[in-house]
TrEMBL record:
EC number per UniProt: 2.6.1.-
SUPFAM superfamilies (alphabetical): PLP-dependent transferases (SSF53383)
Family: Belongs to the class-I pyridoxal-phosphate-dependent aminotransferase family.
Domain Aminotransferase class I/classII large per the UniProt entry, residue ranges: 32-392
Keyword vocabulary terms for this entry: Aminotransferase, Pyridoxal phosphate, Transferase
Gene3D superfamilies per record: Aspartate Aminotransferase, domain 1, Type I PLP-dependent aspartate aminotransferase-like (Major domain)
Pfam families named in the record: Aminotran_1_2
Family annotation (InterPro entries): Aminotransferase_I/II_large, AspAT/PAT-like, NHTrfase_class1_PyrdxlP-BS, PyrdxlP-dep_Trfase, PyrdxlP-dep_Trfase_major, PyrdxlP-dep_Trfase_small
PROSITE patterns the record matches: AA_TRANSFER_CLASS_1
UniProt name for this protein: Aminotransferase
Reactions mediated catalytically: L-aspartate + 2-oxoglutarate = oxaloacetate + L-glutamate
Length: 400
Protein backbone atom coordinates (compact mmCIF):
# COMPACT_ATOMS: atom_id res chain seq x y z
CA UNK A 1 0.00 0.00 0.00
CA UNK A 2 1.48 3.36 -1.02
CA UNK A 3 1.88 5.83 1.83
CA UNK A 4 1.48 9.01 -0.22
CA UNK A 5 -1.84 9.86 -1.85
CA UNK A 6 -2.27 9.26 -5.59
CA UNK A 7 -3.44 12.87 -5.84
CA UNK A 8 0.14 14.01 -5.18
CA UNK A 9 1.28 12.44 -8.43
CA UNK A 10 -1.03 14.85 -10.25
CA UNK A 11 0.65 18.03 -8.98
CA UNK A 12 4.04 19.64 -9.20
CA UNK A 13 5.71 22.07 -6.80
CA UNK A 14 5.47 25.80 -7.49
CA UNK A 15 8.23 26.98 -9.86
CA UNK A 16 8.01 30.49 -8.46
CA UNK A 17 8.69 29.27 -4.91
CA UNK A 18 11.52 27.07 -6.26
CA UNK A 19 13.22 30.06 -7.93
CA UNK A 20 12.98 32.16 -4.76
CA UNK A 21 14.45 29.25 -2.80
CA UNK A 22 17.35 28.81 -5.25
CA UNK A 23 18.09 32.54 -5.10
CA UNK A 24 18.09 32.39 -1.27
CA UNK A 25 20.48 29.43 -1.31
CA UNK A 26 22.92 31.17 -3.66
CA UNK A 27 22.79 34.32 -1.51
CA UNK A 28 23.49 32.24 1.60
CA UNK A 29 26.63 30.96 -0.19
CA UNK A 30 27.76 34.55 -0.62
CA UNK A 31 26.71 35.08 -4.27
CA UNK A 32 25.45 38.52 -5.27
CA UNK A 33 21.93 37.58 -6.37
CA UNK A 34 19.04 39.84 -7.38
CA UNK A 35 15.78 37.94 -6.91
CA UNK A 36 13.02 39.00 -9.29
CA UNK A 37 10.96 35.88 -8.74
CA UNK A 38 8.71 36.77 -5.82
CA UNK A 39 5.14 37.88 -6.40
CA UNK A 40 4.69 40.30 -3.54
CA UNK A 41 4.88 44.07 -3.11
CA UNK A 42 8.08 45.26 -1.46
CA UNK A 43 6.12 47.93 0.48
CA UNK A 44 5.20 47.56 4.12
CA UNK A 45 1.54 47.22 5.18
CA UNK A 46 0.16 50.75 5.80
CA UNK A 47 0.14 51.91 9.45
CA UNK A 48 -3.62 52.39 9.71
CA UNK A 49 -4.05 48.69 8.88
CA UNK A 50 -1.37 47.57 11.33
CA UNK A 51 -2.94 49.76 14.04
CA UNK A 52 -6.35 48.17 13.44
CA UNK A 53 -4.79 44.76 14.04
CA UNK A 54 -3.08 45.92 17.23
CA UNK A 55 -6.38 47.38 18.48
CA UNK A 56 -8.13 44.09 17.66
CA UNK A 57 -5.60 42.20 19.78
CA UNK A 58 -6.05 44.64 22.65
CA UNK A 59 -9.86 44.30 22.45
CA UNK A 60 -9.46 40.55 22.74
CA UNK A 61 -10.57 39.70 19.20
CA UNK A 62 -8.54 36.56 19.52
CA UNK A 63 -11.16 33.80 19.38
CA UNK A 64 -12.59 31.65 16.60
CA UNK A 65 -14.66 33.71 14.19
CA UNK A 66 -17.68 32.63 12.14
CA UNK A 67 -16.39 30.26 9.44
CA UNK A 68 -17.13 32.60 6.52
CA UNK A 69 -15.67 35.63 8.29
CA UNK A 70 -16.59 38.29 10.87
CA UNK A 71 -19.81 40.17 9.97
CA UNK A 72 -17.88 43.48 9.86
CA UNK A 73 -15.55 42.17 7.17
CA UNK A 74 -18.30 40.55 5.12
CA UNK A 75 -20.15 43.87 5.23
CA UNK A 76 -16.98 45.70 4.14
CA UNK A 77 -16.53 43.24 1.25
CA UNK A 78 -20.12 43.69 0.05
CA UNK A 79 -19.61 47.49 0.24
CA UNK A 80 -16.32 47.22 -1.70
CA UNK A 81 -17.99 45.26 -4.51
CA UNK A 82 -20.76 47.87 -4.72
CA UNK A 83 -18.43 50.88 -4.51
CA UNK A 84 -15.68 49.73 -6.84
CA UNK A 85 -17.34 47.24 -9.17
CA UNK A 86 -21.03 48.20 -9.19
CA UNK A 87 -21.89 44.65 -8.02
CA UNK A 88 -24.73 43.95 -5.59
CA UNK A 89 -23.90 41.23 -3.09
CA UNK A 90 -25.34 40.77 0.39
CA UNK A 91 -22.81 40.04 3.14
CA UNK A 92 -24.20 36.46 3.20
CA UNK A 93 -23.05 36.08 -0.41
CA UNK A 94 -19.44 36.77 0.61
CA UNK A 95 -16.79 34.55 2.16
CA UNK A 96 -13.38 35.27 3.69
CA UNK A 97 -10.55 32.76 3.34
CA UNK A 98 -6.92 32.34 4.33
CA UNK A 99 -5.68 34.15 1.24
CA UNK A 100 -7.15 34.19 -2.23
CA UNK A 101 -5.44 30.86 -2.69
CA UNK A 102 -7.74 29.17 -0.20
CA UNK A 103 -10.82 30.77 -1.74
CA UNK A 104 -9.90 29.24 -5.10
CA UNK A 105 -9.17 25.88 -3.55
CA UNK A 106 -12.48 25.84 -1.67
CA UNK A 107 -14.39 26.77 -4.82
CA UNK A 108 -12.83 23.87 -6.76
CA UNK A 109 -13.17 21.46 -3.85
CA UNK A 110 -16.84 22.37 -3.54
CA UNK A 111 -17.67 21.88 -7.22
CA UNK A 112 -15.26 19.55 -8.98
CA UNK A 113 -16.17 16.03 -10.04
CA UNK A 114 -14.00 13.58 -11.98
CA UNK A 115 -14.02 14.47 -15.65
CA UNK A 116 -14.96 18.12 -15.11
CA UNK A 117 -12.90 20.46 -17.26
CA UNK A 118 -11.58 23.89 -16.33
CA UNK A 119 -10.56 26.25 -19.12
CA UNK A 120 -7.36 28.10 -18.25
CA UNK A 121 -5.74 30.64 -20.61
CA UNK A 122 -1.94 30.42 -20.85
CA UNK A 123 0.26 31.86 -19.51
CA UNK A 124 -1.47 31.14 -16.19
CA UNK A 125 -0.78 31.62 -12.51
CA UNK A 126 1.04 28.44 -11.51
CA UNK A 127 -1.49 27.32 -8.90
CA UNK A 128 -4.61 27.12 -11.10
CA UNK A 129 -3.92 23.83 -12.90
CA UNK A 130 -2.44 22.21 -9.80
CA UNK A 131 -5.48 23.08 -7.69
CA UNK A 132 -7.83 21.83 -10.39
CA UNK A 133 -5.90 18.55 -10.66
CA UNK A 134 -5.73 18.08 -6.89
CA UNK A 135 -9.52 18.47 -6.73
CA UNK A 136 -9.94 15.80 -9.42
CA UNK A 137 -10.70 18.07 -12.38
CA UNK A 138 -8.95 18.39 -15.73
CA UNK A 139 -7.24 21.64 -16.74
CA UNK A 140 -7.82 22.58 -20.39
CA UNK A 141 -5.26 25.11 -21.59
CA UNK A 142 -5.92 27.73 -24.23
CA UNK A 143 -2.88 29.55 -25.54
CA UNK A 144 -2.71 33.30 -25.99
CA UNK A 145 -0.04 34.99 -28.09
CA UNK A 146 2.43 37.77 -27.50
CA UNK A 147 1.08 39.45 -30.67
CA UNK A 148 -2.34 39.63 -28.98
CA UNK A 149 -0.68 40.95 -25.78
CA UNK A 150 -1.34 37.60 -24.03
CA UNK A 151 -5.10 38.10 -24.18
CA UNK A 152 -7.51 35.30 -25.00
CA UNK A 153 -9.63 35.71 -28.11
CA UNK A 154 -13.36 35.06 -28.11
CA UNK A 155 -12.90 32.49 -30.86
CA UNK A 156 -10.31 30.49 -28.91
CA UNK A 157 -12.45 30.55 -25.76
CA UNK A 158 -15.46 29.30 -27.71
CA UNK A 159 -13.41 26.44 -29.20
CA UNK A 160 -12.11 25.34 -25.78
CA UNK A 161 -15.56 24.95 -24.19
CA UNK A 162 -17.05 21.43 -24.23
CA UNK A 163 -20.11 19.92 -22.53
CA UNK A 164 -17.71 18.93 -19.72
CA UNK A 165 -16.50 22.48 -19.01
CA UNK A 166 -17.37 23.46 -15.45
CA UNK A 167 -15.31 26.61 -14.93
CA UNK A 168 -13.55 29.24 -16.96
CA UNK A 169 -10.77 30.94 -14.99
CA UNK A 170 -10.28 34.60 -15.81
CA UNK A 171 -7.41 36.62 -14.34
CA UNK A 172 -6.98 40.28 -15.23
CA UNK A 173 -4.53 41.89 -14.66
CA UNK A 174 -2.71 38.64 -15.11
CA UNK A 175 0.00 36.95 -13.17
CA UNK A 176 2.38 36.31 -14.99
CA UNK A 177 1.87 38.47 -18.10
CA UNK A 178 0.47 41.67 -16.56
CA UNK A 179 -2.12 41.72 -19.37
CA UNK A 180 -5.41 43.35 -18.43
CA UNK A 181 -8.63 43.26 -20.47
CA UNK A 182 -10.52 46.45 -21.30
CA UNK A 183 -14.28 46.49 -20.91
CA UNK A 184 -14.72 45.76 -24.63
CA UNK A 185 -12.13 42.97 -24.72
CA UNK A 186 -13.86 41.35 -21.76
CA UNK A 187 -17.30 41.83 -23.32
CA UNK A 188 -16.16 39.76 -26.30
CA UNK A 189 -15.42 36.89 -23.87
CA UNK A 190 -18.60 37.31 -21.80
CA UNK A 191 -20.63 37.19 -25.05
CA UNK A 192 -19.15 33.74 -25.66
CA UNK A 193 -19.88 32.67 -22.08
CA UNK A 194 -23.52 33.76 -22.46
CA UNK A 195 -23.83 31.14 -25.21
CA UNK A 196 -22.73 28.36 -22.80
CA UNK A 197 -25.01 28.47 -19.77
CA UNK A 198 -23.41 25.42 -18.11
CA UNK A 199 -20.04 27.18 -17.68
CA UNK A 200 -19.23 28.98 -14.43
CA UNK A 201 -16.80 31.89 -14.29
CA UNK A 202 -14.14 32.18 -11.63
CA UNK A 203 -12.65 35.64 -11.90
CA UNK A 204 -9.44 36.26 -9.98
CA UNK A 205 -9.34 40.04 -9.53
CA UNK A 206 -6.37 40.02 -7.18
CA UNK A 207 -4.48 42.72 -9.13
CA UNK A 208 -7.51 44.98 -9.67
CA UNK A 209 -5.85 48.00 -8.08
CA UNK A 210 -2.62 47.68 -10.01
CA UNK A 211 -3.37 49.06 -13.46
CA UNK A 212 -1.49 51.89 -15.11
CA UNK A 213 -2.11 55.02 -17.15
CA UNK A 214 -5.81 55.58 -17.76
CA UNK A 215 -6.62 51.87 -17.96
CA UNK A 216 -10.00 51.09 -16.38
CA UNK A 217 -10.42 47.77 -14.61
CA UNK A 218 -13.45 45.61 -15.46
CA UNK A 219 -14.77 42.33 -14.01
CA UNK A 220 -17.04 39.79 -15.77
CA UNK A 221 -20.27 40.11 -13.70
CA UNK A 222 -20.07 43.89 -14.06
CA UNK A 223 -19.52 43.78 -17.82
CA UNK A 224 -22.25 41.15 -18.34
CA UNK A 225 -24.86 41.11 -15.54
CA UNK A 226 -26.34 38.02 -17.23
CA UNK A 227 -23.40 36.06 -15.81
CA UNK A 228 -24.01 37.13 -12.19
CA UNK A 229 -25.73 33.86 -11.24
CA UNK A 230 -22.74 31.76 -12.29
CA UNK A 231 -19.78 33.94 -11.42
CA UNK A 232 -17.53 33.75 -8.39
CA UNK A 233 -15.72 37.08 -8.06
CA UNK A 234 -12.52 36.58 -6.08
CA UNK A 235 -10.23 39.25 -4.69
CA UNK A 236 -7.98 39.86 -1.70
CA UNK A 237 -5.89 42.32 0.26
CA UNK A 238 -2.47 40.75 -0.42
CA UNK A 239 -1.38 42.77 -3.43
CA UNK A 240 -3.40 46.00 -3.21
CA UNK A 241 -2.60 46.67 0.47
CA UNK A 242 0.80 44.96 0.72
CA UNK A 243 -0.65 42.32 3.06
CA UNK A 244 0.67 39.03 1.65
CA UNK A 245 1.60 37.68 5.08
CA UNK A 246 -1.77 38.43 6.69
CA UNK A 247 -3.42 35.75 4.55
CA UNK A 248 -6.81 37.27 3.77
CA UNK A 249 -8.67 36.68 0.52
CA UNK A 250 -12.37 36.88 -0.22
CA UNK A 251 -15.04 36.23 -2.80
CA UNK A 252 -18.69 36.83 -3.55
CA UNK A 253 -21.09 34.77 -5.60
CA UNK A 254 -24.32 32.80 -5.61
CA UNK A 255 -25.44 31.84 -2.10
CA UNK A 256 -25.48 28.06 -2.73
CA UNK A 257 -21.83 28.11 -3.82
CA UNK A 258 -20.77 30.30 -0.89
CA UNK A 259 -22.54 27.92 1.51
CA UNK A 260 -20.76 24.92 -0.02
CA UNK A 261 -17.41 26.71 0.33
CA UNK A 262 -18.30 27.56 3.95
CA UNK A 263 -18.94 23.88 4.62
CA UNK A 264 -15.51 22.91 3.33
CA UNK A 265 -13.80 25.71 5.23
CA UNK A 266 -15.60 24.67 8.42
CA UNK A 267 -13.93 21.27 8.26
CA UNK A 268 -10.59 22.65 7.16
CA UNK A 269 -9.40 25.88 8.83
CA UNK A 270 -12.55 27.04 10.69
CA UNK A 271 -11.93 30.40 9.01
CA UNK A 272 -9.22 33.02 8.65
CA UNK A 273 -7.17 34.59 11.47
CA UNK A 274 -9.36 36.89 13.60
CA UNK A 275 -6.74 39.65 13.87
CA UNK A 276 -5.97 39.66 10.16
CA UNK A 277 -9.71 39.92 9.46
CA UNK A 278 -9.92 43.11 11.54
CA UNK A 279 -6.90 44.47 9.66
CA UNK A 280 -8.72 43.70 6.38
CA UNK A 281 -11.81 45.61 7.61
CA UNK A 282 -9.58 48.69 7.93
CA UNK A 283 -7.93 48.01 4.56
CA UNK A 284 -11.30 47.99 2.79
CA UNK A 285 -13.11 50.67 4.82
CA UNK A 286 -10.21 52.98 5.70
CA UNK A 287 -8.27 55.48 3.61
CA UNK A 288 -7.36 54.27 0.13
CA UNK A 289 -4.60 56.91 -0.35
CA UNK A 290 -1.94 54.23 -0.36
CA UNK A 291 -3.24 52.69 -3.61
CA UNK A 292 -2.63 55.55 -6.09
CA UNK A 293 0.74 56.29 -4.49
CA UNK A 294 1.90 52.72 -5.02
CA UNK A 295 0.47 52.53 -8.50
CA UNK A 296 2.62 55.48 -9.50
CA UNK A 297 5.73 53.80 -8.16
CA UNK A 298 4.93 50.51 -9.90
CA UNK A 299 4.19 52.28 -13.17
CA UNK A 300 7.60 53.99 -13.12
CA UNK A 301 9.26 50.63 -12.50
CA UNK A 302 7.32 48.96 -15.29
CA UNK A 303 8.41 51.63 -17.76
CA UNK A 304 12.04 51.33 -16.67
CA UNK A 305 12.09 47.54 -16.96
CA UNK A 306 10.27 47.42 -20.31
CA UNK A 307 12.57 50.02 -21.81
CA UNK A 308 15.79 48.40 -20.57
CA UNK A 309 14.74 44.87 -21.54
CA UNK A 310 13.86 45.96 -25.04
CA UNK A 311 17.47 47.15 -25.36
CA UNK A 312 18.77 43.64 -24.60
CA UNK A 313 19.81 41.61 -27.65
CA UNK A 314 17.26 38.87 -28.42
CA UNK A 315 14.65 40.03 -25.86
CA UNK A 316 11.24 41.42 -26.75
CA UNK A 317 9.20 42.87 -23.92
CA UNK A 318 5.62 44.09 -24.35
CA UNK A 319 4.43 46.79 -21.92
CA UNK A 320 1.56 45.28 -19.91
CA UNK A 321 -1.40 47.20 -18.48
CA UNK A 322 -1.18 45.95 -14.91
CA UNK A 323 0.05 43.79 -12.01
CA UNK A 324 3.78 43.99 -11.23
CA UNK A 325 5.12 41.56 -13.80
CA UNK A 326 6.52 41.69 -17.30
CA UNK A 327 6.65 38.61 -19.50
CA UNK A 328 9.34 39.13 -22.14
CA UNK A 329 10.15 36.67 -24.89
CA UNK A 330 13.68 35.21 -24.98
CA UNK A 331 13.08 33.57 -28.37
CA UNK A 332 16.02 35.48 -29.84
CA UNK A 333 18.39 33.70 -27.47
CA UNK A 334 17.21 30.15 -28.16
CA UNK A 335 19.95 28.22 -30.00
CA UNK A 336 22.69 30.56 -28.79
CA UNK A 337 25.57 29.55 -26.53
CA UNK A 338 25.72 31.01 -23.02
CA UNK A 339 29.04 32.22 -21.52
CA UNK A 340 29.29 28.86 -19.67
CA UNK A 341 29.41 27.06 -23.04
CA UNK A 342 25.94 25.59 -22.67
CA UNK A 343 23.55 25.91 -25.59
CA UNK A 344 20.29 27.62 -24.59
CA UNK A 345 17.58 25.29 -25.83
CA UNK A 346 14.61 26.36 -23.71
CA UNK A 347 13.47 29.26 -21.58
CA UNK A 348 14.37 27.15 -18.56
CA UNK A 349 17.97 26.98 -19.83
CA UNK A 350 17.88 30.74 -20.35
CA UNK A 351 16.85 31.51 -16.76
CA UNK A 352 19.23 29.00 -15.22
CA UNK A 353 22.20 30.33 -17.28
CA UNK A 354 21.21 33.90 -16.39
CA UNK A 355 21.21 33.01 -12.70
CA UNK A 356 24.56 31.21 -12.94
CA UNK A 357 26.23 33.84 -15.04
CA UNK A 358 24.86 37.13 -13.68
CA UNK A 359 23.04 36.23 -10.46
CA UNK A 360 19.61 37.40 -11.64
CA UNK A 361 16.72 35.13 -10.60
CA UNK A 362 13.63 35.17 -12.84
CA UNK A 363 11.05 32.47 -13.60
CA UNK A 364 10.90 30.58 -16.92
CA UNK A 365 7.74 30.98 -18.96
CA UNK A 366 7.18 27.28 -19.46
CA UNK A 367 6.33 27.13 -15.72
CA UNK A 368 3.34 29.32 -16.61
CA UNK A 369 2.43 27.24 -19.66
CA UNK A 370 3.73 29.57 -22.39
CA UNK A 371 7.24 30.14 -23.66
CA UNK A 372 9.94 30.80 -24.59
CA UNK A 373 9.42 33.68 -22.17
CA UNK A 374 10.32 34.56 -18.63
CA UNK A 375 8.59 36.44 -15.85
CA UNK A 376 10.12 39.35 -14.02
CA UNK A 377 8.46 40.68 -10.88
CA UNK A 378 9.27 44.40 -10.64
CA UNK A 379 8.07 44.65 -7.04
CA UNK A 380 11.51 45.78 -5.94
CA UNK A 381 13.49 49.06 -5.87
CA UNK A 382 14.37 50.95 -9.06
CA UNK A 383 18.07 50.68 -8.22
CA UNK A 384 17.92 46.91 -8.05
CA UNK A 385 15.76 46.71 -11.17
CA UNK A 386 18.19 48.89 -13.10
CA UNK A 387 21.13 46.77 -12.00
CA UNK A 388 19.25 43.54 -12.84
CA UNK A 389 18.34 44.81 -16.31
CA UNK A 390 21.95 45.86 -16.95
CA UNK A 391 23.03 42.34 -16.05
CA UNK A 392 20.40 40.84 -18.36
CA UNK A 393 21.63 43.11 -21.18
CA UNK A 394 25.21 42.01 -20.50
CA UNK A 395 24.23 38.33 -20.41
CA UNK A 396 22.31 38.56 -23.69
CA UNK A 397 25.16 40.40 -25.38
CA UNK A 398 27.58 37.68 -24.22
CA UNK A 399 25.51 34.84 -25.72
CA UNK A 400 26.90 33.81 -29.11
C1 LIG B 1 -3.22 35.67 -9.75
C2 LIG B 1 -3.14 35.38 -8.30
N1 LIG B 1 -4.22 34.92 -7.67
C3 LIG B 1 -4.21 34.63 -6.37
C4 LIG B 1 -3.07 34.79 -5.63
C5 LIG B 1 -3.12 34.40 -4.16
O1 LIG B 1 -2.98 35.45 -3.32
P1 LIG B 1 -3.14 35.31 -1.74
O2 LIG B 1 -3.33 33.87 -1.43
O3 LIG B 1 -1.90 35.90 -1.15
O4 LIG B 1 -4.36 36.11 -1.38
C6 LIG B 1 -1.91 35.24 -6.23
C7 LIG B 1 -0.64 35.35 -5.46
O5 LIG B 1 0.44 35.36 -5.97
C8 LIG B 1 -1.94 35.56 -7.60
O6 LIG B 1 -0.85 36.01 -8.23
Amino acid sequence: MAFLADALSRVKPSATIAVSQKARELKAKGRDVIGLGAGEPDFDTPDNIKDAAIEAIKRGETKYTPVSGIPELRKAIAAKFKRENGLDYTPEQTIVGTGGKQILFNAFMATMNAGDEVVIPTPYWVSYPEMVSLCGGTPVFVATTQENKFKLTAEDLDKAITPKTKWFIFNSPSNPSGAAYTHDELKALTDVLMKHPHVWILTDDMYEHLTYGDFKFATPAEVEPGLYERTLTMNGVSKAYAMTGWRIGYAAGPLALIKAMDMIQGQQTSGACSIAQWAAVEALNGTQDFIPENKKIFEGRRDLVVSMLNQAVGIECPSPEGAFYVYPSCKGLIGKTAPSGKVIETDEDFVSELLESEGVAVVHGSAFGLGPNFRISYATSEDLLEEACKRIQRFCAACR
